């Protein structure tokens, strides 16, 4: 029997539609692949690694048995082999397809759901793939967890899953608040020093954002995730200012951005896999 992850992978391959170990030759980029597509290969590997780590943690905490943990590790190994055996063009197609499905989820309205509209503007290209990769699934997962969480997981396991999500988003919010506070204060200090020294101060803006659209938000949880992403995007505006005025090097800014991506990815991985699990219940009703 195929696992959920394998089933999604097989569907994407069958559809041939245009989810960190190296899977291409060093320096090789498939023709027509964007930087986000190539990065997506690493994201899929990150997912699989996270699934292995989750199996270990749940086994240690007594949530799942040794046999269940071994089965999950075997599923990860099979999925990894399946993905790596594909031609590079098909791997890229799978990654693109998952992002396309995420965009389709945002465009569809969910019947019977109470929503709050939100305007999403992301200035920075680095955050657009992150948003498309994870947020639509986290948004849909959050409302389906309210509707079908007990049926899918049982009351105890549902609480365990919800506790994980709460800890993750709280940690991300704390991190983004701290980055925003420090970055804003540092920029103001350095800008005042430049002006007091009579130096010219560049004030860069982004007239064309990487992403600008309205979405329907299904829960407080997904609104918190969205708010954290947009707040970090605003902090990146301060990074732009610092780079333009020689206050910080671009490589330092890239390190800050990667740190944020690594904070969000575990939440996204679990949210995506939980979405798939819940949809199995929804389709069975």
Please characterize this protein's 3D structure.
The protein is mainly α. The protein has helices at 4-15, 35-60, 66-84, 88-107, 127-153, 155-196, 220-244, 250-284; strands at residues 116-122, 211-217. It has a two-stranded antiparallel sheet.
Order of helices and strands: HHHHEHHEHH
Spatial strand order of the main sheet: 1-2
State the low-pLDDT regions, or none. 1-39
Mean pLDDT over the residues: 79
From the N-terminal CA to the C-terminal CA, the straight-line distance is 21 Å
Class by helix and strand content? mainly alpha
Q: Report the strand count.
A: 2
Number of helices: 8
Helix content: over 70%
Round the Cα radius of gyration to an integer and report it.
21 Å
The shape is globular
Q: Tell me the strand percentage band.
A: under 5%
Taking the sheet with the most strands, its summary is: 2 strands, antiparallel
